[in-house]
What does this fold into?
Amino acid sequence: MTESRQSRRTRDPERSRRAILDAARDEFVAHGFTGGRTGRIAEAAGVPQGLLYHYFDNKEGLFDAVMEDTLAPYFNGMLDMLQSAEVPDLDLLEDSVRRYFQFLHDNPHVARLLAWWFADQAWEGKPLTRKQGVAEAVELLGAARIREGQDAGFVRRDLDPALVIKTFIDMCVMWHMSKGRHMLHTAPGEEQADLDARYLDHMVDVFLNGVVAPEHRPR
Amino acid sequence: MTESRQSRRTRDPERSRRAILDAARDEFVAHGFTGGRTGRIAEAAGVPQGLLYHYFDNKEGLFDAVMEDTLAPYFNGMLDMLQSAEVPDLDLLEDSVRRYFQFLHDNPHVARLLAWWFADQAWEGKPLTRKQGVAEAVELLGAARIREGQDAGFVRRDLDPALVIKTFIDMCVMWHMSKGRHMLHTAPGEEQADLDARYLDHMVDVFLNGVVAPEHRPR
Amino acid sequence: MTESRQSRRTRDPERSRRAILDAARDEFVAHGFTGGRTGRIAEAAGVPQGLLYHYFDNKEGLFDAVMEDTLAPYFNGMLDMLQSAEVPDLDLLEDSVRRYFQFLHDNPHVARLLAWWFADQAWEGKPLTRKQGVAEAVELLGAARIREGQDAGFVRRDLDPALVIKTFIDMCVMWHMSKGRHMLHTAPGEEQADLDARYLDHMVDVFLNGVVAPEHRPR
Amino acid sequence: MTESRQSRRTRDPERSRRAILDAARDEFVAHGFTGGRTGRIAEAAGVPQGLLYHYFDNKEGLFDAVMEDTLAPYFNGMLDMLQSAEVPDLDLLEDSVRRYFQFLHDNPHVARLLAWWFADQAWEGKPLTRKQGVAEAVELLGAARIREGQDAGFVRRDLDPALVIKTFIDMCVMWHMSKGRHMLHTAPGEEQADLDARYLDHMVDVFLNGVVAPEHRPR
DNA sequence: TATGAATGAGGGTTCATTCAT
DNA sequence: TATGAATGAACCCTCATTCAT
It folds into this structure.
């Protein structure tokens, strides 16, 4: 009798925190920061509203935590990927693009969080995450890898490495942000799944042809 | 501008409607639909809040009107541009990209409205504007133009015209959505103004090299 | 061309006033004074909102006008009825009850206006209409007629004539206010039309048996 | 009463709920559903407006709760009364009428809530309370009791028991709805208190004479 | 007389946050 | 740590009424 009422959701701080964070991610992904409701988060997490404020300062603190929690693996994964390959070559470049595209494909909430960030926070100059350094590291490392490609001769030397990186990242992100739904609403009469693959091939093709040194071009 | 907050209660419905629409555009551009406040809109427009509901059904109706009012010239301009040139050639293609980029540059609120749409409405399947037909017409006409380019031989025949269109549109939109602030936060130590120009050159270069038939490539 | 735009709803004050009054009656009957909307009234009447205030002081003035306009024939009809019969007798008494019941049956909005008045205005001590005198005249005349009946010997002498009047009026009004729908929700499985008739017979029976002198009782 | 506006922010949910419900009852009794203001309710209850929505879905939910809370004892009391007397006789019938009249006299808000219901909700077909069953039970039991009276011989056999019940209920309710203020505005020059008593006597007299079998008539 | 734009005071309701328990 | 009642500032919208035309 003494523990029956207690045992339902008994003291498990870590589980509570995790549940809140997961619920918050779903909420913010679906509605953005402004549209996100703490009430819905608490309900989805199965905790009382007040508990949110034990683990996080306020709605904004919770949002930031979600961003970090969600984007950290994203950046870390890229860092790993960029560091893994010793000698950069053409295949690695293509492979990088494809793996990046695949990552967004497998983590659709990442793309949508980025969309919210572009619309809302980026304009106010708010950094993407509090550990901004990681994001910058990725970019610097990526640019460095491109520069190695230029040194090796298979990437055009007249291009700014940072912009090369940006070019393919933008195309991948944009595709997943618009969910295959071209801004100008096409409906090519094929499966959505195939469309993703077809777009990826198209994009890689155009990108490589645009970026690779003439003598190394695929076609 | 000196007479803006003037003698209200003087009859000028058109001016009122315009003022509301302009104020609403600024508000929704800055805060999105959910974050937009009708109170701020009314204040900025210099009209009582109740008047909004004389001209529009509700907040959503006002938002839709703003979208239409803002995007109509955008689409119409593109239609004109696509129709104007009689014989498509390489220069026209490059010119189109540059003009499109320039348009977004000159109308930054368009890019940001698109950003909100990507984050919020697009996911719910809401069409970009109520006159969806215009948007589709642009896309179809654009694709048709690319196809003419393929027939003329200067655009690669193995590419899907619709995806070619999407490729450069995405790059232009993405740049202006992120306001030059690469998602991965680069700061190349130069003026923002120059950065735009430099990115445009880079993008056009990569795009054309990727898309144009080998024998017509710029370099 | 000069009269085409004019002729639609050209100057016809009386028609406008009438249209407003009719629309207002429907509105107030359906929603009461507080729930009645001037906007709906104007719309139903086919006139702009502002015009209401040319014919009436304000919402309350319009409501009062409706009450008067609706209840005047009601009271005048009763006055006529009470004055018409020269010598009161038992049949006249029964006939009066039946005609009163019938009147409410034929004018359902009267019963509902009374319902609103009971709930809302009566409690605040507001008179039923501005020409309160007519209502009082009806009552006095009715009571006088009952007194004549007492003198003639067919109405019990120990009853207060005013209460006798009230007794049957209340029963008639209550029936039509509750629209046959007993307060305690019965559903006798018969036609609503028949129910009215059956109730009337019942009521008249009980009323006469209760009020008429023993030697004149119908059964 | 001295402690009513006290230390709020002290935990007592039951008291809060009760205070809201009581304040709401007064408000709705005085102004009906449409005219009732949640702001006034909150103020009278001594709670912030937002708290109403912690305990009730919305204004309508609060109204329904008030109806139920107010009418439940009304119906339950009648049920008890009808069940209590084992053998029905003439005195019991008269007693029932008098007790019902007295109940409405002692609970004036019940009569006025009924008045609002007649004017507003009944017409839209809305049930009197959510526990409609109780109301129907009262009616069925009442009719059953009258039927017993018919079997016992002291109630006229030619009358429909359900209508007999309705007859006296209507007279009681109507009197209290119009608060002794006859629809036709009588003012017999006596105290209001006495008037109630005198009307009750009159009504019981007429009713019994009308309903009771000839050989059992009081006079 | 007729019109409908303009006004501003609330109306019901939501919501992030605090706090006693 | 956990709970959910309590708080109050907005928020969107409605509505009776006024007034320039």
Q: What stands out?
A: Confidence is low (pLDDT under 50) at residues 1-7 of chain D. Chains D and B do not touch (no CB pair under 8 Å). Residues 8-9, 11-13, 16, 47-51, 54-55 of chain D lie near DNA strand F (CB under 10 Å from a C1').
